[in-house]
Amino acid sequence: MPVVQIKIDDKEFSLECGDGEEDLLRKAEKQLNLKLQKHRELLTLPEAQKYLMMALIIVGENIDNNEKEKEIDLIFNEIDEELSKLENKLISGSNKND
């Protein structure tokens, strides 16, 4: 298994990962450091609290994004139903003209 060196908030970690997962860990490292830059108030917390808060922020954003995706899916389903109704009207109108 590959070992990847990552750095979060100036602290280095050596992590084992599956083959091909190195890139994903690098992206996660970058995102975590960006979150820390955005939420500077976390930098003064003890390490365990800092990482707990980071996890809660990320999970909260994920829940919010999932809810937005569900709303978008509902809207697309409504649009699809309306398009199907219009298509059926066009087909039935076309058949009457034949």
Descriptive terms for the model:
single chain; 98 residues; alpha+beta; Double Stranded RNA Binding Domain; 2 domains; two-stranded antiparallel sheet; 2 helices; 2 strands
Structural account:
With 98 residues, the chain is an alpha+beta fold. The chain folds into 2 domains: 1-38, Double Stranded RNA Binding Domain (2-Layer Sandwich); 41-98. It is built from 2 helices and 2 strands. It has a two-stranded antiparallel sheet. The termini are far apart. The relative contact order is 0.08.
Brief sketch in words of this structure:
The protein is an alpha+beta fold and 98 residues long. 69% of the residues lie in helices and 12% in strands.
Taking the alpha carbons of the first and last residues, their distance comes to: 68 Å
Structure annotation, total helices: 2
Name the beta content range.
Answer: 5-15%
Using the CA coordinates, give the radius of gyration.
24 Å
Average of pLDDT: 92
Class based on secondary structure composition and strand pairing? alpha+beta
Number of strands: 2
- What is the approximate shape? elongated
Question: How are the strands ordered across the major sheet?
Answer: 1-2
